[in-house]
Amino acid sequence: MxxxxxxxxxxxxxxxxxxxxxxxxxxxxPRSNAGxxxxxxxxxxxxLAQSPGGGGAFSGGYSGTANFRPCVYQQxxxxxxxxxxxxxxxxxxxxxxxxLVLSGRRGSCQGWFGHVVLRSLKHPRVRIxxxxxxxxxxxxxxxxxxxxxxGGTGRFYHATGSGTVAFMCSGSAYxxxxxxxxxx
Length: 184
Hints:
10 strands, mainly beta, eight-stranded antiparallel β-barrel, two-stranded antiparallel sheet, Porin
């Protein structure tokens, strides 16, 4: 089969246009995920390297319900579980859940220690994780305990920080107030 020059030229031009269109489309896709955006189902999703660093003063508060078992000298055990809603810096409207247990020794009830997770209501997969502890007797209410940020999810994956959290209780209700700093 003999192809005329004009037909083969037109075929080359069509192929070049198609390849240019493909390379144009592919040039906008990342070669790797490091510091770029990835496209998934038509949405632009920033990678961890693009997440802007930030932080600063961290404050806010929550209120909700708590289950408190005080320390009894003969048992040396205590527990404070709580869940509540409120708002804090960098998360906005959010929820918290925590579990503190008492460390007791030799006839005395001393310090409450445990973990607290703060979860964004707008972005439920975004969380800040904290370790909380300090001296308080006989229970964590009313008291002010120290916290250390131990990480989280989303932009808080490598978060650090510290400060205090002040607890108040009335029956099975509690409230708290966070104050300190966080960087992420």
